[in-house]
Design a protein that fits this description.
The chain is mainly beta. The strands form two sheets. The chain has a six-stranded antiparallel β-sheet with strand order 1-2-3-9-5-6, with no helix packed on it. The chain has a three-stranded antiparallel β-sheet with strand order 4-8-7. The longest helix is centred in the C-terminal third of the chain and has 6 residues. It is globular, with a radius of gyration of 15 Å.
């Protein structure tokens, strides 16, 4: 369905030329069981400036009952604010038709199924 790359460097110097940055590829596909998002292993020598990901899917399916990250089922948060306080989980904003998924950053990447 979609592919993207997250790029991160210090934003101030030219150290990115010496590989002082990180790139993380993300690929979202569809299967007969739902959506699969694969987060690739980090490339580059710099650690990202974040400790977790917060993905927001617009005009998402609202019938999602289960979100699994690396074989761990995520807990549902009643509000987005509650989700932001947690290390990981998911929230569905039915009024705005948004799905939020929060997972921790891991150097080796991971897989989210929903």
């Amino acid at each position: 369905i979609s592919e993207a790359e997250i790029y991160d460097d210090d934003g101030e110097t030219t150290r990115y030329r010496a590989e002082e940055h990180s790139c993380i590829a993300i690929k979202l596909t569809s299967s007969h069981k739902g959506q699969v998002m694969k987060i690739a292993r980090r490339q580059g020598r710099a650690n990202p400036s974040w400790i977790s990901y917060l993905f927001c899917f617009i005009a998402s399916r609202l019938d999602i009952q289960r979100v699994v990250y690396n074989r761990t089922e995520l807990d549902y948060s009643a509000t987005k604010e509650e989700l932001l306080k947690r290390k990981m989980g998911f929230h569905i904003d039915e009024e705005r038709e948004l799905l939020y998924i929060k997972i921790p950053y891991e150097r080796e990447g991971g897989v989210v199924r929903f």
